[in-house]
Amino acid sequence: MRGRPAFVIGCVLAGLILAMAAVSLVWLPYDPSDTTGGRLAPPGGGHLLGTDKLGRDLLTQLMVGARIALTVGIGSVLLGAVLGVTAGLLAGFASDWLDDALSAALDILIAFPTLLLAMLVVAAREASLGSAVLAIGLAMSAIVARLTRVLVKRVLAQDYITAARTSGTSWPRVVIEHVLPNIWPTLLVNLSLQLGLAVLAEASLSYLGLGPPPPNASWGRLLQEAQATVLTAPLGAVAPGVLLVVLVVGVNLLADGFRDLADPTRRRSR
Amino acid sequence: MTLLDVAGLSVRRADGRDLVRDLSFTLGPGERLGLIGESGSGKSLTALAVMGLLPAGMTAHGSVRLAGTQVVGARDKELDRVRGRTVGVVFQEPLTALDPLMRVGRQIAGPLGRRRGLRGAPLRAAVAAALDEVRLPESLARAYPHEISGGQRQRVAIAMALACEPEVLIADEPTTALDVTVQAEVLSLLDRLVAERDMALLFISHDLAVVADVADRVIVLKDGSGVESGRTRDIVREPRHPYTRALVDSARALEGALDRLAP
């Protein structure tokens, strides 16, 4: 870890949000729907960060928000990774026409705006945590699939694959021993970056009212609700915004660190 | 006994153009055949076609019998078995021939373990022996490919190719990417190993001097066709085809330049 301040800062920032979410599972200052705090109470006193316009404790809302941000972020990355890597491997190995067909499908999916896709999903299902994960995960899977496909094609063109095939290694073994390990570092970095993007996408959806509905206190919805009172109680808008930035920056710094850890050629040359 | 029997081999691109045209040769135990030609003459494609590993979009026509098994048109599954025990290959660029994310020892252990069914301590000992055979220290097993020199990488690639105890070794420009001094070391190493194991050697190069050093017979390839073939000595002494003559002349010219400078 020495000599990698960026990675350490990333750990601290992302860890902070993770800790908030973890604590929220076992302890919250107030009940999330407790409105007895008085409208827009200033920070201090019984409410460390004050209350919102409905009298709910802001710290409580932020902690629940951290949990939602991480749930949607990690959930959609898992969904996007499973779907994307599978489709990408398929396209990478596929014969000409199947590869072409998959690539065309991916290009269409990528050209489709995430928010529009999310609206369709919400319209077809309902505004919920699951819908947000599904919409963001689907949009992400296309990007992951395209990246995986290119990475697979590049690895397959290498001599060590031909050498392995010559020594009688079967395709499944080649994938497990050579292809996956060699595309993994790049994929991991990309998936970490996608985690940051997914958190932002969830905030956008919630801001537009397409995310998890109340009483789920998503940061995006906190931002939207605090919009009207931003001049009288700025903390209500600033706090979720700051946490959003902390999480996304932390995750992005972690992504860089992962790359250094996963790639032995970088590990030692630093 | 013929280990490799190539008859009327053509390699066709998807658009119908032949990149290798009607090539025939045979290779028995202990025989050394050189394939010589310029870039794009179809040397490497010939090697890939022999192993049944042509890139997507290219098809082989004719007949390639590898230890009695027809390679052209065979299914991958059948070939996996034949390839593993019959043929080993060493490539031009040792850096891309090794998996960059796998320690050298594990890369040698892979084919070694599969071929001889070894695990654990006996496998480690076999890896050490394989490294020793190519004159590399056992400690190198823990290194990643980027941590060792080009010559060492090529030795590792040779150890990997030999781990399956192949009867046919295909060397595709194995010394082209190396320094001249390292080139000589790797050539003599190959020479010794092929002789010791009585392997058949298919040696591919654009360098006549290198081929003359290693191969007993040569085929001169130009634009995918064999324009001349025969014993190396005869071809170097009396080249008949104009292209072969040009090859011999330019090799002589280089040698002459050295001789003139010698005291």
From TrEMBL, chain B:
Principal place of residence: membrane
MF GO annotations: ATP binding; ATP hydrolysis activity
UniProt xrefs under Pfam families: ABC_tran, oligo_HPY
Subcellular location: Cell membrane
SUPFAM superfamilies: P-loop containing nucleoside triphosphate hydrolases
Topology term for the membrane: Peripheral membrane protein
SMART domains reported in the protein's UniProt record: AAA (SM00382)
Single biological process term from Gene Ontology: peptide transport
Record-linked CDD domains: ABC_NikE_OppD_transporters
Keyword tags: ATP-binding, Cell membrane, Membrane, Nucleotide-binding, Transport
Highest taxon above the source species: Bacteria
GO CC field: plasma membrane
Keyword Transport part of the UniProt annotation: yes
Domain ABC transporter, chain residue ranges per copy: 4-248
Stored PANTHER family: DIPEPTIDE TRANSPORT ATP-BINDING PROTEIN DPPD, OLIGOPEPTIDE TRANSPORT ATP-BINDING PROTEIN APPD
UniProt family annotation: Belongs to the ABC transporter superfamily.
Protein name: ABC transporter ATP-binding protein
